[in-house]
Amino acid sequence: MNEQIAAIDTFSLQKDFLPVGEEILGAPVPNGALFTSEGYTTNSTIHSRSLAAFASGSYALTKQLRLTAGMRLTSERRRLSYWQQVQNQYYNGQPFGLIDIYATNVGSQATPVERNADNTVLSYDLGLDYRLSPFIMGYAKFVRGFKGAGFNTSVTTDPEGTGLVFKPEFVNNYELGFKSKFSERTRFNAALFYTDYINKQELLDQGTRVRVANAPKTRGWGAETEFSGMLKNFRVDVSMGYLHFRYIDFPFGTDEAGNPVNYAGNHLLKAPDFTFSVAPEYTLPITDQLRVFLGMNINHTGKAFNDISNSDIIARQAATIVNGRLSLAPRNGKWSIALWGKNLGNTLFIQHGWEYDWGIKLPGADQGITGWSCI
Asked: In its keyword annotation, does this UniProt entry include Methyltransferase (predicted)?
């Protein structure tokens, strides 16, 4: 794969930002009444080349026991060309400098900052499965995974561009489970897994910019089950999952006193602790050629946090969503007419949330210049 991505990002502060800027700076801006606008422009170009080769196979050790293995060799080369230019407003030869809160000059169009991210990695998997009976199979599996390094191309306040590159992510996953199929109409599977991340890549919408940061150590375990059953005109699919994932070591940013903050012990981003789904469907034959399908999908999602600091105000609280579908289709399935509804219970919940610095400290508030945006 060969790829080239170019981006231009522009941003400006207008005169209404003045009181916010003075709150952040903790001091009045000289001649601030004359301020109208400052901004920045960020330019980036990424050239990527990725090569990969893989192989997999299985070998029957006995009639019941089978060994499976696979490997993938990936070679990635990425090149970044980056520069950022601030646009100041001057008064008596001096810039107001409000844009300095968010950006600084990095390189130039003639001499951009160059960064490389090269990775050559072998990933692999190894597994054993054992047929306890013609209908039940148990298995154990290990997977070593990899996600390549990359670049943060959003705004930065570092004139050296130190944080432009984020590290590759590695993961070791261990899984035990079984699969069963007692007939053509019933199926039940279950699995228990443990996952260990090294330098997990997290996309963060926090502070004053969007960036990818590496969590040096992240671990957790989980379990999942699924069941499918069919009668003559009725089918039901049920699934359930549980996750217990935590950051073990994740230094990121500073507190209001300038001290380093480590989010060790916090829940992972967007990782609900519990999920449950049940989807019943009933088929009603009308004629020899036409059928009516009446189905529902009931999904329960446990609480999930939208930021690494686990702010409750923008967390997705536990919610149950009910969807429905009524359709008409011929036996051959070549066409269908359907009436469907989503969130029939009109459940209100936060899907995504972002935390930024903005606004003015309100009287009596414990914190200022912090705001949340939710969907």
From this structure: no
